[in-house]
C-alpha cells in the first residue's frame, strides 16, 4: 500500500473513533464526575486509563478478537459477566453513598470505586464488552485485507490520542471553578444518576445473549 492509502485508512478510523468518543457513555460520565467532584488531576489520570483501555481494545480488534469470541463464546460470556458485575457493584456503591450524611463524605471517598486514578479509568473502559466488538467491526470495515502491522498500530495510536485528547478536554472544561461549583450543588444527584447508569449497563451486559 502507498503512504497516501495508509493515511486515508488512519484518517477514516480516526474520524469514526472521534464520533464514538464524543457520544456520551460510561467513560464520559466517569470523567465528568471526577472533574467536578475530585478535580482536574483525578480526571486526567482516569483519562489516561481510559485511553490505555482504548489502545488495548484497538490492538485486540486489529488482531481479530471478534473471531476468537465466535470460536470460544464462553470468553465473551466471561467478559460480559465480569464487566457487568464490576459496573453493577460500582453503581451500587455510588448510589448508596449518595444517601449518606455529608459528614460521611470523607469515608465514602476512600471506598468509592470511581474516586479517581488510572486504574479506575482503565477498568471502566475494559468492563464494556461492546468495545471489542465495535473496534473489531471498525477495523473490518476500514482496514484492507492483509494490512501491515504498522498500519494497525498507527490506527491504534490515533485512537489512543483521540481518547486522551477528548476526555482531557472534557476534564479541563468541567473542572473549571465556575462549572464545578454549579455541578457541586447537584453532587448527590450526580452520584445517583451515575450509580443508576452504571447499574443499568452492568445488568444489561450480564443479561444480554452472547453473539453467534
Features:
about 210 residues, mainly alpha, about 80% helix, amino acid transmembrane transporter activity, cell membrane, transmembrane helix
Structural class: mainly alpha
As a percent range, the share of strand residues is under 5%
Q: From the alpha-carbon coordinates, what is the Rg to the nearest angstrom?
A: 18 Å
Global outline: flat
Mean pLDDT across every amino acid position: 79
Note the gap between the termini: 33 Å
Describe the main β-sheet briefly.
Answer: none
Q: Could you give the count of β-strands?
A: 0
Number of domains: 1
Order of helices and strands: HHHHHHHHHHH
- Unreliable stretches, pLDDT < 50, 5 or more residues? 103-112
Which bin fits the share of residues in helices?
over 70%
Number of discrete helical segments: 11
GO molecular function: amino acid transmembrane transporter activity
Keywords: Cell membrane, Membrane, Transmembrane, Transmembrane helix
Membrane topology: Multi-pass membrane protein
InterPro entries: LeuE-type
Protein architecture, described:
By secondary structure, the chain is mainly alpha-helical. The chain has one domain (3-207). It contains eleven helices and no strands. The protein has helices spanning 3-22, 26-37, 40-62, 65-71, 73-97, 105-111, 118-126, 130-142, 149-174, 177-184, 187-207. α3 packs parallel to α7. Mean pLDDT is 79; it is low at 103-112.
Amino acid at each position: 500500500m502507498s503512504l497516501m492509502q495508509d493515511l486515508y485508512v488512519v484518517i477514516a478510523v480516526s474520524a469514526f473513533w472521534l464520533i464514538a468518543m464524543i457520544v456520551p457513555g460510561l467513560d464520559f460520565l466517569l470523567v465528568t464526575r471526577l472533574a467536578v467532584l475530585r478535580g482536574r488531576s483525578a480526571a486526567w489520570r482516569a483519562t489516561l486509563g481510559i485511553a490505555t483501555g482504548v489502545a488495548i481494545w484497538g490492538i485486540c480488534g486489529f488482531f481479530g478478537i471478534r473471531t476468537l469470541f465466535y470460536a470460544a463464546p464462553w470468553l465473551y460470556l466471561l467478559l460480559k459477566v465480569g464487566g457487568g458485575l464490576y459496573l453493577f457493584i460500582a453503581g451500587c456503591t455510588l448510589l448508596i453513598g449518595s444517601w449518606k450524611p455529608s459528614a460521611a463524605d470523607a469515608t465514602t471517598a476512600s471506598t468509592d470505586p470511581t474516586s479517581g486514578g488510572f486504574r479506575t479509568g482503565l477498568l471502566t473502559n475494559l468492563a464494556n464488552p461492546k468495545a471489542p466488538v465495535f473496534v473489531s467491526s471498525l477495523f473490518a470495515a476500514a482496514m484492507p485485507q492483509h494490512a501491515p502491522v504498522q498500519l494497525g498500530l498507527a490506527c491504534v495510536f490515533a485512537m489512543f490520542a483521540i481518547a486522551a485528547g477528548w476526555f482531557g478536554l472534557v476534564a479541563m472544561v468541567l473542572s473549571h471553578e465556575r462549572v464545578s461549583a454549579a455541578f457541586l450543588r447537584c453532587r448527590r444527584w450526580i452520584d445517583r444518576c451515575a450509580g443508576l447508569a452504571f447499574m443499568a449497563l452492568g445488568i444489561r451486559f450480564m443479561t444480554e445473549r452472547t453473539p453467534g
